[in-house]
# Entry
Amino acid sequence: MEKTIFSGIQPSGIITLGNYIGAVRNWSRISEQGKGIFSVVDLHAITVRQDPKELRERILSTLAMVIASGVDPEKNLIFIQSHVSAHCELSWILNCYTMFGELSRMTQFKDKAQRYADNINAGLFTYPVLMAADILLYDTDLVPVGVDQKQHLELARDIATRMNGIFPKLFKVPEGYIPSVGAKVMSLTQPEKKMSKSDPNPKSYISIIDEPDQIMKKCRSAVTDSENRIAYEEGRPGMNNLLTIYSAMTGETIEAAVARFEGQGYGAFKTAVAEAIIAGLSPLQQEYRRLMADPGYLRSVYTRSAEEAGAIAAKTLARVHEQIGFVGR
Ligand code: ATP
Ligand code: LTN
# Structure
C-alpha cells in the first residue's frame, strides 16, 4: 500500500532556511515513497495577528515556495487549509477528546503566550488540536516536520490512540519524520533560539528568497564565539549551527566539513557557508520567480488540490460522525 504523507506550513512570513532544511525540502524527498498532501495552514497563522493584505499575498507566495522547493504538484496535493472546511469540523470534535492539561503542557503555546502576551487567544491554545485534525483527516502514515513540532505530533498520536480506544480503528496513528541533520536550525543572531520566519529581526534568519549579497552579509555577521577554532562541540551553538547548515546544504558530513576547514579562520568559513547556501537556493529562486509570474497556474494547483483533499477529508469526517453517533445527512 502506498504511504500517505501530510505536512503543513504557516504563511506567517517568508520560508526560512530552517523551514527548508528542517521540513519543506524533505516533503519532496519523502513524497516519492507515496502520496504527498501538503497544506499552507492559514487557519493556524491567524492564531497570531496578521495584516489581511499581507496574509493573502503570503499564502500565495508560500504555496509557490513549496512548489519551488521541489514538491511536484502533478503528483502531490498542495492546498490552502481554509479551502477544506473538514479541518475545522474535525478539530471541534477532537477538542472534545483533548484535555486542558495536555494543551497546557505544550511548549510552543507557553513560548507564544509569552511572546504575544497581549493576545493569548483560545486558538493559540487549541492550535495543536487543529494540527491533529489536519493529520488524522487523511489517514496519514508519515509527517515530515522539524524537531520543534515533535510534541504536537505526539499529541496527535495520543488523541488518535485515545479515540481508537473508544471507537475501534477510527484513526490511523501517524509517525513523524524528522531529519537527522538540520531538524532545528538556529537563529543567526541568537543561536540558542530556533530560526523563525516571524522573528522581528531579519538578520536572525535567511529567507529562501534572500539575494546572494544579503545571504553573504547575514552569514558573515552570524554570532559565533571567540574560540577561533572550527569544530562541532558542546556549548558552541553559533559554530554548531553554521556547520549544520553547511552540511545540510552541501551533503558533506559535519566531520568532513570540520576537517576541510581545519586551521582556517571564521571569515573564510562563513564565506564558504554563504556560498553553499547561495548555490543551493539559486535554482529554487529562479523557479519561485517563474511561478509568481503565473498566478493562473498557482490557482489551478490550489483549486484542484483542495477538491481532491476535500473529497478524502469528507469521507474521514463521515466515518467519524457515524462512529461517534451523529445522524448522517
Ligand atoms: P513561526 O515563526 O511563524 O512560528 P516557523 O518559522 O516556526 O513559523 P512553521 O510554519 O511553524 O515555521 O513551521 C513549518 C515547518 O518548518 C515545521 O515542520 C517546523 O518544524 C519546521 N521548522 C520551523 N523552524 C525550523 C527551524 N528553525 N529548523 C528546522 N525546522 C524548522
Ligand atoms: N504546526 C506546524 C504546521 C502544521 C503542520 C500540520 C505540520 C500545521 N498542521 C500538520 C505537520 C502536520 C508548524 O510548523 N508550526
Summary: The first helix runs from residue 17 to 31. The mean pLDDT is 97. The pocket of L-tryptophanamide (ligand 2) is lined by residues 6-10, 41, 44, 131, 134-135, 143, 145, 149, 152 (CB under 6 Å). The beta strands are 3-9, 34-40, 77-80, 142-144, 175-177.
